[in-house]
Amino acid sequence: VRLYTTSHCPRRCGFCSSQTFFPASEGHKSSILMLSAAQIYDIILDQIDKYGAKAFLFNDDDFPVGSKPGLERVEQLCQMIVSGKEKGEIPAETRFICQARIADFLVRVKGATSKKFAVNEGLLELMHQAGFNNIGFGVETFSDKLLFAPSIFKNVTAADCHNVLHALLDRGMVPQIYIIIGIPESSGDDLIQTLDAAVDY
Q1: Cα–Cα distance, 98 to 46 (Å, whole number)
Q2: Model confidence pLDDT, tens digit, residues 15-45
Q3: HEC states along 75-101?
Q4: Does the reported pTM lie above 0.85?
Q5: How far from 160 is each of 33, 63, 118, 120, CA to CA, in Å?
Q6: Most buried of the four, 3, 87, 95, 101, by CB within 10 Å?
Q7: pLDDT digits 0-9 by tens, 116-145
């Protein structure tokens, strides 16, 4: 079952027109609208009951939304799914897939003198327990230069990307990695660096 649970993506990636299209077309900035964890859980139960659904793809561009309410929604949903599997409301083998951003799984290191981030291991572990076996990431490039270039503007480093991807792999989860070939600011070295990393994964 493919589900959309939010109105639009909150990110401002350099290559995407959504964040300029919505305000221009509506004449004002649009707030993110999203289903609650309880509403999503009800849909999951309904689709299992009616159709015997065995897997759910949350097709939002950024399912965790990257905000405190969005991350709390993911945590609540995962806790409900874990409990639902224990109670027999959801078959144990039911799997979940979503799309996210690397930044969704980074937390600021407390006490660090500069911006330093660590992987949110607790959130990933909870998602793993709930049955999220595949997460798609718009990594786009493994070049630090390009990650901060206007055409991409992900505001994360290549090391951040590797840390999150390895945290998934360590749990047996599958990261689906999206990359962009031919970024305007690319050099040959940037392309080789990205392709080498992608092939390694």
Answers
A1: 19
A2: 777 777 777 787 878 788 999 999 999 999 9
A3: HHHHHHHHHHHHHCCCCCCCEEEEEEC
A4: yes
A5: 28, 19, 8, 11
A6: 101
A7: 899 999 999 999 999 999 999 999 999 999
